[in-house]
Amino acid sequence: MHERLLPASPNWYCSRCSDVNSDGILGFGAKNTIYLLKVTATSPTVLGELNGHTERVSGFAFCRHDGQENICASTSDDKTVKIWDIDQKALLTEHSVHQSIISAIHWSPVEKGLVVSGDEKGIVVCYWHGRNDTHSFFPEPRTIFCLTCSPHNENYVAVGYKDGMIALIDISKKGEVVHRLRGHEEEIHALTWCPEAKEEALYSLQEDNTDSSNGLKDAEVGGYLASGSRDQTVRIWSTARGKGVMTLKLPFLKRRGAGVDPGVKERLWLTVHWPNGRPSQIISSCFGGELVAWDLIKSGKQKWTLLGGSSDSQNHSRIVFNVNSLCLEDRELLISTSMDREIKCWDLALLECCWTLPTLGGFVYAIGFSPVATGCLALGVGDNMIRVWNTLSVQNPYDTKTYWQGIKSKVTALAWHSVKEGSLAFGTDDGKVGIYDAYSNKPPQISSTFHRRTVYCLGWGPPIPPLSFGGSGDRPSYSLYSCAGEGIILQHDPWNLSGEATNIDKLIRDTNNIKHKLSPHTDLSWKPDGKVLAIGNEDGSIEVYAAPNLKLLCSVQQHHKIINALRWHHPHSGRPELRCLLASGSSNALVYVHDLCSAIENPSESPVLVTEAFRSLSGHTNKITNLAWSPHHDGRLVTVSYDGTAQVWDVLKEEPICNYRGHSGRLLCVQWSPVDPNLVWTGGDDFTVQEWAVSKQEHVRPPKSRRRVELEKKKVPQKKTKKKKKAIGKGGAKVEENEAPIGEEEKGAAGSGLDEGQSYDEDEEGGPFEIKVDFFANCNLFGLHFSELPLKKRKPRSILPLSTSMDHRPKEELQQDCLDLASVTHAKGPRRCVPGTGEHIQLGLFTDREALFQMFKEEEESHVEAGHYDSMMYLRLWKGDLIGALNLATEKGELTDHLVSLAPMAGYQVWAKTVESYVKQLCMQEQFLKAASHLVSVHKLYEAIGLLKAHQLYREAIALAKARLRAEDPVLKDLYMTWAAVLERDGHYTTAAKCYLAADASFDAAKVIAKKGDVMSLKTAANLAKIAGESNLSQSLSLRCAKDLMLSQDWLAAQDILSKQDTLLGHRLQFCVSEMLTRCLAHTGVVTWSLTSMHAWSEPADEGFLAAVCRVWKNVFGLVPTDLDEMRALHHQLRAIENPPATASVPMKQLLFHVALDVALSVLSQLLGDWASVVEELLRAVTRGFEAGHFTLMTEMCELLLPQGMDSVEVYKRRLMKDDEESLDVYQSLEAFVCYQFMYRDWWRHSCCSNTNSHSTEDMNVGEGFWKILLSEPHANLQATQRAIEDIQSRVSLLVQHHHPQEPQPNLSSVAESESFPALVVQVTEHQKRIAAIPDHLKKYPFPDVLECCIVLLYMNKHFGVIPRHVCVEASSLLVRYGSTSSLHKAWQKLTL
């Protein structure tokens, strides 16, 4: 019936919801429908649908046997398994054995008629099509996720469960488990068998923990099985040995232009597929929609190859659920379905995508062809996306682009700009209005004015006041108009969507002097010439206004219900009188066409009232939702309706032309093809868009509704019969409750809209529910209450139905029973009849016990045939066969609490066995608590606890264990620890900590609370560890918490958390120094963040910084400087803190914290009188800024720690031991850095005042001693040698690269020709000898770059003033001797020229 069709999206999260047969027919479940596609290597074709399920299709599989490729099976959440013939599109048979939602299905590739299905309760059902036979098995009390039949053994079925276990069962042995394959940690998403039965190809690749000496024969038949799980692994299993042979971990493929998604694991679905003819290759999905091909015999770590790796656009953009393969025309093809709502076909030889079929995940609310880009069809869909379909594409008939950014709601309205190419306006069900540029990747522009309800209609038209005011350059040539469910129409400025939209009702009121309230608007349509606007209203009226001031020209009072659609006739008609035709559709199922030519072309002073239609089109049986004029014909209209059909009309002749019935639900939108006069496009709530040809439709009119058919039947004269009067409560609402209102069609689940909210107003006519309410209301009028209505009691089912039915025979037969009973009672010879059997079953009640038991036997057989097992069990109980009754109930799974309570009458063994059977039955019904209680009743306490634990009812298991077991029982601790591990894995750290505490694992409790890492958790964990006596852990957590608070600059809280730990006084002193240092540097440019939570004592004082630190330590922290033992302990504690070297990548807050540690150590050393350590630690504090490349920090630290400059350094020198050479070396380095920062400060100061003509050495504030400190020849020699070694090492690296042809490097030929590796090694050795000859004290401590100082000296002498000549000569001499590198050589040569 259709030409092209975009189907509904395949269902998500199903292990096998699609399959393909050898003829190239792909079937997949979408909602409650199965779609059939013809697959080729170039494009797909939708063949049709299979309808019959009432709920979501959860599984689909084809028969794999020759001659039966057209037979398939499907499962659904309606708990049925259906067998179909796709050629006839007819249902062959079905069964409803499952009592729970079915989650997996497969058609056996070996057994011709075997269909195996599994449900969420763990039941596996085998159905033999052809002989209509079923068998049920319960191999494991677990939720089934997937299953697959072995292609090598007709009796083997692999079942994957939610908890990660795989069971290989033998259906010929009542579902006996052959192997339990354990290894996955989470649910099994897919299982697939190797196409070859022998297991020799991968035998050498088994895992290390697999025992190779387990009796496996050469090429033993069993078959490899591949499984994909949510734990991000693919495992290969040997079914002959029941063990894993390979584990493949999914690669993380970060897509170009995409960020890392932290929730990718939560949305992972790992499907696997083993293509036929490729025993060493499997296909699996990956994290973000990629497909990877695994080569199982390939060596090395990377065994996978990405499908569609040449372009990101080939891959799915979201997770893949199902993969199928087939061979067509010597090409191996792969079909994949995904969450991105696309079906893709891949060439397995090239690993490239052949074609993509877009699908739809919601109602199709709006469609529209672009008036500029011919053939571009925009679709507004309820899956929160817009699709633009290039319907004229030659290479790809389904060339579609998807837009989703900025939408986030159902797209209910669309409108292309009349002249601007690619400009597409959209409206959503949450009231949003926006404009997309279809030819760019930019997000849409969104109007700042939202509607309060769903946007129904959009239209581009000329601007009206206030947007029409102003010059032509100040206003847009088109405005965007939107109409929504609250009944207003807004005018949006497309040039300024951030501005406020205007309500056109104000202009209508002002222009037409209207005082009353306007009727809510429901639709609008601008006449193509932009001069007239038609507005439809909720009361059924249509008002026509003249632009730009919206003067009311006429009002059409024809409809009586809400207007759903308005359309003007196209302007390029050959007959001018048709250009003023306005078609309208409403909820009363009628279409009216009005000729408004006179009202528009010859307007009168007062509005014209139109009450007669130019043409009336009747035939639809439900509300009209949309309509469209053919741009190729005069007066040809197509309309769509809730009756599920599209109707083409010849308006001038007022006749129907054809009726399209290809949709399975209500129609919501329609468009006529702009290039082909024979093609029409429709969309509906069946999630499809369909293209169909007018000339190919077999129907002319819409189908009649059920209500109309019944009304026509009532017109036929019928013979009146006399009826008895009935009470009001019994028959008063008989007709009303069973009839649907006129215009309402009965709809199946496919069109019920269960997963989409309706975007149109409901019919005003009452439905069945409203009629029922009215009936009960009428009952109240008569003084009756609902509870008082007489209700007929249901007669209970007889436990002896056969014998009871014999009492309702004719009188003659009943009298003959008396004669037979008398003859049996008084006969002395052979009996003529046997009471209690056959035709005399009723006599068993009136003779001896033997006859009664015979009657019971036949009654039991009758109950079994009818499925009334409870009645049969009661009969056995009455006979005294309690064990038989219990065995029967156990076999049928019909045990009850009453029967279990009777079991002790048969003995303890029977009672215990019955309870165990009842427990298994309750587990199937997921009544685990009740099952555990019954186990407790037979003193199986540990089994009850284990049952609760196995089903993760840890809270209940612990409650039972604590109530019945000893406190020291290891089971209780195991429960706590197991539950804690589960809670910790799921992120419930607080409850996990409680479990650890209960299990006397306080250390683990503190660790798990701290796992979250926030300040509050760390603080709680530290306090818990302290209470539990874990002092080391408590100190560690407190310090970690304090550091986090320091980074957030909450100094008050940091000191508070540290103050609770008596052993962390040293750390408190470091935090104190860090806070004071931060406060002092707040106005220097070093500290750029705001300071809020700080102590009052950190305020800078007039005294020196080190003196202030000592004062605060003494007054605030109670430090006693005379207590040398305490000082040594604190110094030792701070020395144990790791203080890594400074680098440019260290954040400033951490760098200041490290400097504070150096300062704190220097203060403690000063209190201890260890002046050598004082100087060394001051040197570290000063040079940290130098090493991190932060000159300002180094300068500020010099001013804080050495406020008098060289004089301060001299003070420390006098306190050092004269014979302590190492200390003097430290002093020399510190002195050099002070001079270094003075040198640069003077240079910058003189650079700022370079316009002066005279510079003197006094202005420079430096002397010969200053330069003598910096121009240290030993340090220059050391630094030059180190630079030379680095230079040689870089040349060695270039030489190595030159000799690797696979890594070609440019411009290396000169290096290779002039130098050799042995020569470079010799040079390095010589330089290392030179370094070894340099004294150690020069190499141990940092020193400013001497040659850098020489260059600065020469620069300052050249530009700023006179520096002693011999100093300049010395600097030049050092540059000549040690400036061997090219950069230094060039720099000093420029200064000496």
From TrEMBL:
Record-annotated Gem-associated protein 5 RBS domain positions: 1105-1253, 1310-1379
UniProt entry keywords in alphabetical sequence: Repeat, WD repeat
InterPro entries to which the protein is assigned, alphabetical: Beta-prop_GEMI5_1st (IPR056432), Beta-prop_GEMI5_2nd (IPR056424), GEMI5_RBS (IPR056420), Gemin-5 (IPR052640), TPR_GEMI5 (IPR056421), WD40/YVTN_repeat-like_dom_sf (IPR015943), WD40_PAC1 (IPR020472), WD40_repeat_CS (IPR019775)
Gene designation: GEMIN5
Protein name: Anaphase-promoting complex subunit 4 WD40 domain-containing protein
Domain Gem-associated protein 5 TPR positions: 843-1051
GO CC annotation, single: nucleus
Organism listed in the record: Electrophorus electricus
Residue segments, region Disordered: 695-764
Record-level Gene Ontology MF annotations: mRNA 3'-UTR binding
GO BP field: spliceosomal snRNP assembly
Gem-associated protein 5 second beta-propeller domain ranges (all copies): 375-684
WD repeats: 50-94, 222-247, 617-651, 660-702
Gem-associated protein 5 first beta-propeller domain span: 66-195
Tree of life domain: Eukaryota
Biased composition (Basic residues): 716-728
Pfam name, any one: GEMI5_RBS
